Amino acid sequence: MSNSSPLTVGSKLENRYEIVRELGQGGFGRTYLAIDINRYQEPCVLKEFAPQIQGAKELQKAEELFEREASVLYKLQHSQIPNFREFLRSQLNSKPALFLVQDYIEGETYAQLLKQRCFSEAEVVQLLQQILPVLEYIHSQGVVHRDISPENLMQRSVDKMPVLIDFGGVKKAATTAVSKATGQPVVTLLGKEGYAPPEQIRQGKAFPSSDLYALAVTVLVLLSGKQPKEFYDNSKAVWHWQQYISVSPELGKILDKCLAYKPSDRYHSAREVLQVLLTVSNPNPQPIANPNPQPVTAGNLNISQMPTLNFVGRNWKTNVTQVIANVGRTIVKLPAKKLFGVKFIANTLKIGVVVAVGVGAWNLAQAELLKLPKKISFPLPNLPSLPSLPKLPNSTTLTKAELDRQAEIMRRSKALGVTDFYTQVDRLFYSKYPELKRRALTEKPEDAKYRQRWYDIAEDLLDKLEKEKSI
C-alpha cells in the first residue's frame, strides 16, 4: 500500500490532470482515472509508483530505475496496448511522487466479464488468436509482461478486441533492482500467484514462455470460472485441469505444452503457438461452465415428468461407461454405472436416474457420450431456468461489398499461413496515418475512408507476400 494519501476527486496534478476517480490500489501505489486538461479533456490513466522504501538514496535509485523501465513502455507502439504518454515527477503531500500517464481504455477486464459468464472454447481460441500477436510484438521488443491474468486483459468496448494492460511487472522489476542495488529488502512478487510460472515465483526470472504459461492459466480460468489453485497439485507440481474442463484434443495439447514446468519444454514464442493453433478446428461455441454455480439435486425422480435429452454414446451396443453432461453452462463427467440402470429395447436406450448429483444452475440439459454416431434419447428432471443472456447484435452498417472484401483478405492471409498478418497491416497503416493515434477504426461512416485505406494496405501486403511465396 502506498504511504501517501489518495488524490481526491476534482483535484489537479501539476495543474494538468484532473482526478475523476480512483480505479484501484496495490503495493506500489494507486491508479486514477483523470482528464488531461491540456488535451481537450481527454481521459487518461495515472499510475502512481510509491515503493515502501526509506531514504533519499534509495528513492533516487528507485526514480532512476523506474524512469528507465518507463522508457521501455514508451517504445511499445501497438493498437492493443495503451499508449504511454508521460513519465511524471510530482509532489504528493509534500513528498516526491512518480507517475506513469497512459491512455484510458474504455471497456471491461476479462475478470469482470467472467463474473457474467464463462467463456466457450471458440471464444478462448479467438482470444488467443487476437492476443498472441501482441505478445509476439512485445517479446520482439525485449519486453516480458510478467503479469498476464484476466485482470490485466481488457475487452475494448469499441471493437471487442483484447487489450493488454498494466505492465506491472516493469514496476516490480524496478523495485527488485532497488533492493539489489541498495541492500534494502523490498517485498515483491513477480506475477500473480497461480498464474506466474515456477521460475518467475521462485527465481524472479521471466522469459517469453513465462507469459505463455500465464496466458494458458488465464484460458483455463476463463473456461471454468475456477481459480488456478483448483487445477494445480502443489505437491507434484502438475496441472490436472482435464478433470474439470473438456476441450478439443488439439487445444488441450497446446495448453499442456504452455503449462510445462520447465521453460525449455514450452513453446518458445507466441508465433509458434499461433501456428499450432491453426490445428484447432470446430471449437465448441457454447460456454461449458457457470462461474457461480448453485447446487441442484436430482434424486429419486418420476421419470414420466422428465424432459427428454439427447446424448451420443461411444458404442451403443455395449455398456455405457461415462456420460459427459453439457448442462446449460456446466460440463460434468459422470460414471454411468453409478447413475443409470441400462436396458436395450429395439436399439433404444432407456435410462433412469438413480443417484443424486449437484451440478449447478441449469436452463437446459444436453448430455453427450463421446464419439458414437447414433443419437439416443433419455429423460432428466425438470430444473430451474436461468435468465436469458443478452444477445450480441448481428447487424452491421457495413455493405456486403465491404464485408466480402474483409472475408477475402482473411481467406488470403490464412492461405499464406501468416499468423501476424493483421499486426503487420496495423503497423503499416498507423505509421502512414499517425493522426489517428492508433485508435481502433469503427463501422461509422466517418471512418469509411480509413477502412478502405486499411484494406488497400492489406491487399498490397498480400500481393507482395504471395509473390514472394511463388518465387
From TrEMBL:
Taxonomy, superkingdom: Bacteria
InterPro entries referenced in this protein's UniProt entry, alphabetically: Kinase-like_dom_sf (IPR011009), Prot_kinase_dom (IPR000719), Protein_kinase_ATP_BS (IPR017441)
Catalysed transformations (reactions): L-seryl-[protein] + ATP = O-phospho-L-seryl-[protein] + ADP + H(+); L-threonyl-[protein] + ATP = O-phospho-L-threonyl-[protein] + ADP + H(+)
Binding-site positions, ATP: 47
Pfam family, one: Pkinase
GO molecular function terms attached to this record: kinase activity
Keywords assigned: ATP-binding, Kinase, Nucleotide-binding, Serine/threonine-protein kinase, Transferase
Protein name per its UniProtKB record: non-specific serine/threonine protein kinase
Organism: Floridaenema evergladense BLCC-F167
EC identifiers of the protein: 2.7.11.1
Location of the Protein kinase domain: 17-278
